# Entry
Amino acid sequence: MRIALGLARRGLGTVWPNPAVGCVLVRQEDGVGRIVGRGWTQPGGRPHAETEALRRAGAAAKGATAYVSLEPCCHHGKTPPCTDALIAAGVARVVAATEDPDPRVAGAGLRQLADAGIAVDCGLCRLEAEALNAGFLSRLRDGRPMVCVKTATTLDGRIATHSGKSQWITGPQARARSHQLRASYDAIMVGVGTAVADDPDLTCRLPGLEGRSPVRIVVDAGLRLPLTAKLFRTAKSVPTWIIARDDADDRRADAVRDLGVEIIGLPAARNGYPDPHDMLRHLGERGITRLLVEGGATLAAVLLRAGLVDRVAWFRSAGIIGGDGIPAVEPYGVDALADMARFDREGTEVVGADMLETLVRRH
# Structure
């Protein structure tokens, strides 16, 4: 099953709105288990993992055990049900890590397999499987993508000097690791302040992963990002969305759309921002399951205040700027310790001269 989970991770960032699934077919020969087929969800969500594994196994799938990181689908969509394919191939047993909460499946896939005489087990490596597809589960259960705030700071939590200089706080290895992180997310979001100050590309520029750049999203309530920004210059080759107020200037909006940018107009709320719950709900409706938020301090504070940050990826350099530097998060109204956002440390990773700490929201 852990091999299946590893295969599933290959699809993260490329299969939305579908889940990233891995499948391993194992056949017993002379008392020894041998892998006869492997598969994972392909870009765009099709073919599914089970279909890929069965194709690679061919006739060897008959009598095999299928280890699948998510309950096989049993409904007709853009592809036939995976349950039908498993039954037709003659597999003897299916082991699923967790049930698919999609109401079109929700246990029905496992029941269909059992009704066909296939031995069924569910729950092996459940927690790992649910963590891997946290974005897919969040979109189904809460109507929004899973949100990870990524930041790069000094030891004292500063993202830039008082004059706004931020390139580069962390070293080249950390920046490469950040690009690797981008490749595993469906979309990347920044506030307009960061977009204006840094003029970023927000693409994945690691060799071999250039085609895995996520959808780029800028929260720009008043459409003030310059038309000469890098994000606009490349909008026709990399999907770029702007979240703006629905009363933004029509002429400005038309000029932005002419550059290939899609505008999501929402009512203004707190601090001139569209309501963060509305923002994420709209992204969920568009199929986004995993959202990486890279800046800046205002956007991070808005999402933290709303309780919408699920994960944090914190790159930390071994430098100190001091109190006049720009903090990673603006004030967001914490009056008592009980009110602060709390996270559990999931892991730490040495990245060159820097450190990456990953954290998960405490429930």
Observations:
- The first helix runs from residue 2 to 9.
